[in-house]
Amino acid sequence: MRIVTATAVVLALVGAAAPAATAHQPATDGIWRTDGYGTVLSIRNGTLQEYQITAVSCIAGDTAQRTGPGAYTAPGGTVLTVRTRGDRDRASVRLDGDVGERNLRRMTELPDACRRPAPGGPLASFDVFWQSFEENYPFFAAKGIDWHAVRDRYRPTVHEGTTPDELFAVFSRMVEPLHDAHVAVRDADGDGDGDPDRAFAQVRPGTVRPDGKLDAKVKKFVVERDLKNARTLQDFAAGRITYADLPGGQGYLRISGFGGYAGGEASYAAELAELDKALDTVLDQERTRHLKGLVIDLRINGGGSDAMGLHIAGRLTDTPYLAYSKRARNDPADPTRHTRPQPLYVTPAQGPRYTGPVAVLTGGSTVSAGETFTQALMDRPGRTVRIGQPTQGVFSDVMVRKLPNGMSVWLPNEELLSRSGRTFDGAGIPPHLTEPVFTAEEFDQNKDSAFDRAVKVLRDRAAS
Fold first, then answer.
1. 34 contacts 103 by C-beta, under 8 angstroms
2. Looking at the chain, which terminus has fewer C-beta neighbours within 10 angstroms, N or C?
3. What's the pLDDT at 265?
C-alpha cells in the first residue's frame, strides 16, 4: 500500500540566512516559514534545504538543487517550484504532482534551535515524536484520544538506556489507538539497502490494507467473473489501469493506484504521460459518444497523486466545478485553527470527454488519493452514484518527520472540505448504495454484488 496520497513532504534546504535579492541573486533566496506544516526552508547558492520545526526541535530534512527559475529538484526527481509574491516577503511552494500550494513568509534568520546541535538519545526522540503530533495532528478530539495522557503514560517508560527496539514498540503503542492509515512509525535504514527495516502502520478496524497480493487476487477474480463476457479488455500504466467494454454498451474502468505508471522513480511528467495514453485510448471520441454508462472501480486502490485524480475527473465533465477545498492545521497550540481553505477545481480536459452516468465502486481498501478522487466526483455534474462500502477515511498529504535517533514518523495535518464544509476523515466517504465488497462469502460464492448492482443501476438509468 502507498500510504502517501499525493507527495508527503514539502522539501526544503538548510543554510544560513540570505540577504535580500540582488540582480545576481534569485528572489527566492532566503529563509522561509510555511503557513502550517512545521517547516522552515532555507534557500541559498542554488541549494534548498528543509528544517522540520517543533517547539522542542529543529531537524534538517531533505535537500534539492536549483534546476531552473524558482525550480528545485530533489535527488529522486521531485521538483519544487517556489514563487515570490508582491513585496517579495511572501511566496508559495508547490510540489510537482501535488494539488494546491503552501504559503511562505520570509524570515530574517533561522530559528535559534536550528543554529545549535540537536539533542539526541531516546528521550529526545520521544519528545520530538510526541510534539510532532501535538502540533500538527488534527484528529485527536474526533478520535477521543487524550494525547497528553498518552505522554504521561509512556514517557516515564523511556530512559537513556532504552533500546531502539523498545522505543519502536513504545511509539507503535502510542499511535495504535488512532487507527489512522496515514500514521506510520518507521525505523532507520539499518542494513543500508534504502528501505526501512520495519514499519508500524494500520488501517481502520474492519478494513484491509491494499497491497500487491490483494490487488492481484481481486483483479484475477474480476477478470474471470465480471469481465468474462467483455468485448475488449486492456491493461495500461504498468497494469494499474484496466478497461473493458461490457455488454449493453457500458464501460468498466479499474484504477488500483494514482501513480506507479511509468516504473522506478519516474517524474510526475512521465507518470502523467502514461496516464494520458491510457485515457486517450479508453475515452476516445467514438467511445465517449456511444458509452451508455461507466463503472469506475476503486475498491482496491492504494492512493498516490491527488493531482492525477483531478486530471481523470477532467475527462468526465464539460463543466468546471469545485472538487474540494484543502486546509492544514497551522497553530501548534490550537487544533481548531487552520490555514485558509484553498479551493481546488476539476477543469474539463481538452479533447473527448465522457459526461454520462457513472457508478463508482468503493470500499475500505479505497485509500488516500483513491478517496480524494472519489470526493472529486461527488459534485460532478450529471449522474454519479457510489456503490459498495465506505472508503478508508484518510485524505491528507503525509508529513514525514525525522527523529533524532534516525527513525521517522508519518502523520497527516490536513483536511479536505466538501462544498458544504464537510470532511470524511475517520469514517470515510459513504456509498449511496451499500453492498458487500470482496468478503470471504462473496469470494466463496463467486459473487460480486457491488459490480452487479452498478451494472443494473446504469442499465436502468440508460433505459429511463
1. yes
2. C
3. 78
